[in-house]
Model the fold of this input.
Amino acid sequence: MTYYYVDTNNAVQGPVDLAALQDLKYRGQINAGTPVTPVGDEQWKTLGDILAATSGPLVGEPLLPPPPGPGVPAEIEGSITSGSSWFYWIAALSLINSLILFFGGNTHFVIGLGIMQIIDGLGIGMAEGGLPSARYVCLFLDVVIAGGFVCFGIFGRSHFWVYLTGVMFYVLDALIYLVVGEWMSFGFHVFALIFLIKGLASLREKNRILAAGPVQTSAST
Done:
């Protein structure tokens, strides 16, 4: 019985017999988790499973089935992680800004969300107008918005449209600072957007790689 296997470059190799697979494993070129399939079968298993129990008789002409999926370069994954982590920073610093205002402070982080600053201002104004509970309602809205950006960071790493939605929200928020002339905050928004968009581009490239499938090579004898 002979087998196809996926090498470290995510290319299909083979067919080779079981002894050759064991030799490749001994030399460190493949391992127990390497995808392997018998010639004539379309079900991929790990080398460990193949070595533990051999398959039954096979029928039909030899074929080269599709491997389980391509690998994504580490630099692309790193760019996605780095870009999406900005959503966490935006959420955290924006919420800190709101808490500072809630407890009477007058400083803020320039990377924070302008929409939350507007909500906080409305809450303070309504409280001074005789509706103190408004500040708590506005703080709750701040928490909801910050939570949304956390979700962009969590789910955006694997869902392009979630990530894109988060970027668009932050672009709109940057326009708030542009309109009111808060140039430092606007500048930091642009700075953060550079990394966010870089991560978005990497996520798009990752999806393209996954959709394209692995590189197939000619089977060797």
Observations:
- The beta strands are 2-6, 12-17, 35-38, 45-46.
- The CA atoms of residues 53 and 61 lie 23 Å apart.
